[in-house]
Amino acid sequence: MARKQSDYLASLLADEEVIETEAKSPHLPQAGGSGESAPPSPAPQAAGQTASPAQPPRSERLRGTTLLGRESALARVASGEVRQVTQLLLDPARVRVWTGNARSYEHLSEESCRELIDSIIAEGGQKVPAVVRRIEGDPDHDYEVIAGTRRHWSISWLRANSWPQMQFLAQVVQLDDEAAFRLADLENRARKDVSDLERARNYAQALKDHYGNHLTRMAERLKLSKGWLSKMLKVAGLPDQVVAAFASPAEVQLKPAYPLAQALDNREKAPAILREARALAREQAERRGSGRPAVPPAQVIQRLLAAPETDKDAPAKEIVLLGRAGRPAVTIRSINRQGVTLRLHAGSGVHLEGMLDMALEALNALEDEGRSFIS
């Protein structure tokens, strides 16, 4: 969008060069070109013929046509036919990132931005401007980034790492939140490093903020399939404990995650999936700590969908927590959707606060196993 606007304006301002070329020879071809002949020599004046009045120097004639071309271009800009594009060199510390962008700024790193950082260094600065808009009421920031989050992060990183002269090149636009969202979405669609989950959650928030929860209207505005958008919003609803089962949120892709999101709608299946998700999250953490490869996303999906359900008909077992000398301190019984029954035993040697702490720890363990009694 910005490049088209700037190219259009540049082409208008380039009209003066065309005028200059035409002014040099309005009727005759120029010499030196392929298949072109030199202009004929002027006929000699007849004897006694009065010489024609002297023409003004060519530079003065061309200056007039050049000014006319420039005035014409600027008049078209002033009329609104062409929108002027303002680009600024900014301190990235005075620019914040708009919260409506899908890209997760906190997940950016030197590794993920390495190629862009190297490109900026090689070119002596940022060449492609980001898109920002001016903000009011924030003493720490003057603008916010609508599109160009990675460029902002990379310039900030370079300024903090031996390149303090680097500045953030930005194009300033006036956009409301809905238009800003559509612009950011268009840029992110072409970015492979924006995960499906990031985009899905961004769409879910935008549906509420900009489109009044009207899915059809949102799909029309974004030029997206209503069915595809519906699937994205479904994946956006994956709970955080399920996302934690993956090595990274970036591994949550639309096609395999959609059946998982559907399975969580089953109230009988959901506890087993959540229980397996917690086990996978612990396993992923252990693998990271020991330097072993993470559980791949396809295997994560498979294990979550295949998580065994608990036997609904089997009676809930009592959980007995022991105190001093092996005496019962707390018994947890009647674990079901209606709640639990706690029995605090006298003579256990454990004071009341201690017994309550033991009960809370046991209930948290049940929650981790997917046997939550709170719906």
Task: Give a short account of the largest sheet.
Answer: 5 strands, mixed
Order of helices and strands: HHHEEHEEHEHHHHHHHHEEEH
Q: Give the helix proportion (percent range).
A: 40-55%
The strand order across the widest sheet is 1-5-3-4-2
The fraction of residues in strands falls at 5-15%
- Label the structural class: alpha/beta
CATH architecture of the domain at 86-194: Alpha-Beta Complex
Q: Can you describe what's shown?
A:
The chain is an alpha/beta fold and 375 residues long. Helices cover 46% and strands 11% of the residues. The protein has 14 helices and eight strands. A five-stranded mixed beta sheet has the order 1-5-3-4-2. The protein has a three-stranded antiparallel beta sheet with strand order 6-7-8, covered by helices on one side. Strand 7 and strand 8 form a beta hairpin. The longest helix is centred in the first third of the chain and has 21 residues. The chain is elongated and about 115 Å long.
Task: Please outline the helices and strands.
Elements: H1 2-13, H2 15-24, H3 58-78, E1 86-90, E2 95-97, H4 114-123, E3 130-134, E4 143-147, H5 149-160, E5 168-172, H6 177-189, H7 196-210, H8 215-222, H9 226-236, H10 240-243, H11 254-263, H12 270-290, H13 297-305, E6 319-322, E7 328-336, E8 339-344, H14 352-368
Parallel strand pairs: 2-4, 3-5
Antiparallel strand pairs: 1-5, 3-4, 6-7, 7-8
